[in-house]
Design a protein that fits this description.
The complex is a heterodimer. Chain A has a domain of about 200 residues: Rod shape-determining protein MreC, domain 1 (Thrombin, subunit H), CATH 2.40.10.340. Helix content of chain A is about 35%, strand content about 30%. Chain A has 3 helices and 12 strands; from the N terminus they run H-H-H-E-E-E-E-E-E-E-E-E-E-E-E. In chain A, the strands form 2 sheets. A 6-stranded antiparallel beta barrel of chain A has the order 1-2-5-4-3-12. A 6-stranded antiparallel barrel of chain A has the order 6-7-8-11-10-9. Chain B has a single domain, classed as Arp2/3 complex 21 kDa subunit ARPC3 (Orthogonal Bundle). Chain B is about 70% helix and about 0% strand. Chain B has 7 helices and no strands. The two termini of chain B are about 30 Å apart. The chains are: A alpha+beta, B mainly alpha. The interface between A and B is large, with 51 and 56 residues.
């Protein structure tokens, strides 16, 4: 077999591109400022064209959605009615936990969402690819939004207080728009705590899972043998000083326990309290974690 | 030069379509990779080296708008573009089925490269049945849009022949 000079050059080009790609992946994984700047610049350049396209496409798509889903909506209506009864029991349980959370926060004087300044933004488009869960919002750095800020929506009204639910974090930001990584993205993770019975339950992490709309709550506690995860228990953000999330944001409610092999961990699956596919307006919190004493 | 500008516009169009139109046109929650289909067309038109370079540029531009690591789409698009370019060298004649077949097979190959590379660099859950299902549906969708994308992109990728064209003397 004869390998010509052209073949060698082609292979060299491919190898060079593969090495460059892997170097970029590695740089991005380490959190390179250069790559963040490149993302910001690219989004700034393309944003006007995207906005123009969205202005044309979104109303048309909404119209077709409504038209095409007429029959589907009837079936969905029947299905939702049957789910309503199940949901009512979950909500009743969740309300109890949320009310308890209010009392606990009042006792501990924890800062809540009202203490953080926020920017309200429209959700422009949902995720663009098949392997990440993210959405684009209509405001960016010119409105004071920065990378890693928590994104919330008002979720449930308990005792007259609307509790905010965490829906994601700002993954990248340009001047006029920002990309928000959803809480059910496989790369998302947050310190979380269970609200259970007479007080806060065990601490752990809540993280997204690939191929599922449910999050995974993993208890990290030395005394896991006594932990019982009950359906409807509310999981809230822990608000540790190394994270950019305030404490007490609702992450989701426990759906069921999941068996794990380790003796020091107990897992459950969480359902977000908000339908993340149907978000239209969100609030980006300009929250700064308390300084380390 | 004009050819490069045309191909640059194709990249811009693919980024805008992927991040706007195709977010609404999902089948079972899965969108096609319009950028990858464009790379397949360029690789088929111009060979392995151009396919790899164009795939890298297209993937990199799309990566800038995603939350997956920058370089992952660039890697999979470049390898797929190269592979299709090598395959193209052995094709004797073009059939009407070529675009959908190449779109489907190329989409499947590109998706599998993306998953494998993602798993290697530590992306959680990339090697799973749900990810494989997504890749298969996306490949079928790529096959569906390929007959629309191929003629436009192949025309954009065609080399300018100003110096070698026939002229009619007046």
């Amino acid at each position: 077999m004869v390998v010509t000079r052209t073949d060698r050059r082609r292979r060299f080009t491919l190898v060079l591109l593969v090495v460059t790609s892997l170097a970029l992946v590695s740089l991005d994984e380490q959190g390179s400022g250069l790559i963040d700047s490149a993302r910001t610049l690219a989004q700034d350049v393309v944003a006007p064209v995207q906005n123009l396209a969205d202005d044309v496409i979104n109303p048309t798509a909404d119209w077709f959605d409504g038209l095409g889903r007429a029959n589907e909506l009837q079936d969905e209506n029947a299905r939702l009615r049957s789910q309503l009864n199940d949901a009512r029991s979950e909500v009743a349980s969740a309300k109890g936990s949320l009310a308890r959370l209010d009392e606990l926060e009042a006792i501990l004087d924890l800062p809540d969402v009202a203490d953080a300044d926020g920017v309200v933004a429209d959700v422009v488009t949902q995720r663009a690819d098949n392997f990440s869960r993210a959405f684009r919002i209509s405001k960016g750095s010119s409105s004071g939004i920065a990378k890693n800020m928590p994104v919330v929506v008002g979720a449930a009204s308990v005792s007259g207080n609307v509790r905010s639910a965490l829906v994601g974090r700002v993954a990248s930001v340009s001047r006029t728009s920002a990309l928000v990584e959803r809480i059910d993205d496989a790369n998302f993770g947050v310190g979380a705590q269970l609200v259970q019975g007479t007080g806060f339950g065990p601490k752990g992490t809540a993280s997204g899972q690939r191929g599922s709309n449910l999050l995974r709550f993993s208890v990290i506690d030395n005394s896991t043998t006594s932990v019982v995860l009950k359906k409807g228990d509310v999981v809230v953000t822990l608000g540790s000083i190394i994270e950019s999330y305030p404490p007490g944001l609702v992450v989701g409610t426990i759906v069921h326990e999941v068996g794990v092999s380790g003796a020091l961990a107990r897992d459950g699956e969480l359902r977000p309290v908000i339908d993340l596919d149907s978000l239209t307006v969100v609030k980006v919190l300009k929250y700064s974690p308390p300084a380390i004493p | 030069m004009i050819r490069r500008i045309r191909l640059g516009f194709v990249v811009l169009a693919c980024v805008v379509l992927q991040t706007t139109l195709f977010t609404h046109l999902r089948i079972d929650g899965v969108a096609p990779d319009v950028g990858l289909v464009a790379v397949l067309a360029v690789a088929y038109e111009d060979g392995a080296e151009t396919g790899a370079i164009y795939g890298f540029i297209m993937g990199l531009c799309i990566d800038l708008f995603l939350t997956t690591p920058l370089g992952l789409s660039a890697l999979s698009f470049a390898i797929t573009g190269y592979a299709v370019g090598v395959f193209q060298a052995g094709v004797v004649r073009t059939t009407p089925w070529l675009a959908p077949v190449l779109g489907g097979v190329g989409g499947l190959f590109g998706g599998l490269v993306f998953l494998t590379a993602g798993a290697i660099v530590g992306q959680p859950g990339f090697l799973s049945f749900s990810s494989l299902r997504i890749v298969v549906i996306a490949a079928l969708y790529d096959a569906l849009i390929a007959p629309l994308v191929f003629p436009i992109v192949r025309r954009a990728a065609r080399r300018d022949e100003t110096s070698a064209t026939w002229r009619i003397r007046g």
